[in-house]
Design goal:
single chain, 287 residues, alpha/beta, 6-stranded parallel beta sheet, globular, binds NADP nicotinamide-adenine-dinucleotide phosphate
Length: 287
């Protein structure tokens, strides 16, 4: 259920155990579908709500986190940076990213976690042999690209080529991995020695489903590679179709979404998502 924070405080629901996802706007979030299904599956006595938080309510909301009924929350745009100063401790991925998307409670302390990076890594664990020590090409240099960079460092990648519309402006760098940022006219010369391509741009996201970071005539450069699209709506993007046409291994953003949610749920409850059921619900929600 979606609430403004003001309405939530007035509602009966605020007096029973609860988790939140908090952001603005929040209507698009699939987190309530996933987490409520997992809470119900494990018969955990708590509800998961979406809170549309106005900036003016931020400090009031912080006070709410100390209440006994509040068990944990996910954080999404535009608050991912803001909550980092509110928690007592943060995990190592959150430290590297400077961003938290999950708050948990431990001994009355608030702990910030970044589970987006776990979500990105999890579907890749079966391909580590192909990725470790190799080169990866990443389209886009925004917030998700930063999480991808940290995930690739963790997986032992040696080189990352970021592709940007404005490569001269990129601020992505690393102490662990060799990084270069190139334009959309330059990445092709790095493709041969590349094990994986990752799309972190919104190109291909609904409703603009005919778009892709690569042109059709460039698709053969994806032959037999691993191709990962962070977009989950649609599940099969044009980029993944282009990759599929050339025998690539394809990974969609739905797996990342589910795995980041699962990591948050494990931190809060010590239990895992019922994966099949959750995937079925999300596929239904996405139509
Ligand atoms: P963002 O901060 O807006 O960054 C996207 C980047 O893509 C931009 O920095 C830009 O890089 C590039 N870009 C943007 N518009 C473009 C265009 N019209 N043409 C070419 N490049 C363009 O967004 P984000 O938060 O990183 O999210 C990116 C995507 O990842 C979204 O589709 C989001 O839904 C998805 N995502 C999925 C998950 C998941 O769990 N599956 C999690 C997070 C994000 P340059 O300026 O360098 O070109």
């Amino acid at each position: 259920m979606i609430f403004s924070f003001t309405d939530f405080k007035k509602s009966q629901k605020s007096r029973s155990p609860h988790f939140f996802v908090v952001g603005n706007p929040i209507g698009h979030s699939l987190s309530p579908v996933m987490h409520q299904a997992a809470l119900d599956f494990h018969a955990i006595n708590a509800e998961y709500h979406a809170i549309d938080l106005a900036q003016a309510e931020f400090s009031d909301f912080i006070g709410w986190l100390n209440r006994d009924e509040f068990l944990g929350c996910n954080i999404t745009i535009p608050y991912k940076n803001q909550f980092i100063d509110v928690v007592d401790n943060i995990d190592s991925f959150a430290t590297e990213a400077g961003v938290i998307n999950t708050i948990a409670k431990s001994d009355h302390k608030l702990i910030g976690h970044n589970t987006d990076i776990h979500g990105f890594i999890s579907p890749l664990l079966e391909y580590t042999d192909q990725i470790e020590g190799g080169r990866v090409i990443v389209f886009g240099t925004g917030g998700a690209a930063k999480s991808v960079k940290i995930g690739l460092e963790d997986l032992g990648v040696e080189e990352i080529i970021f592709v940007s519309r404005t490569p001269q402006k990129s601020i992505l760098n690393s102490d662990h991995v060799w990084i270069k940022t190139v334009s959309y006219d330059q990445w092709q010369s790095y493709a041969d020695e590349t094990s994986m391509f990752v799309n972190t741009t919104p190109l291909g996201m609904s409703p603009n489903i005919d778009r892709s970071p690569i042109s059709d005539y460039e698709s053969e450069l994806l032959e037999n590679k691993i191709c990962y699209d962070l977009i989950y709506n649609p599940i099969q993007t044009k980029f993944l179709q282009q990759a599929d046409d050339f025998g690539a291994i394809t990974i969609n953003g739905l797996d990342m979404l589910i795995m980041q949610g699962n990591k948050s749920f494990e931190i809060w409850t010590g239990k895992s998502f019922p994966f099949k059921e959750i995937k079925r619900l999300l596929v239904n929600s996405l139509g």
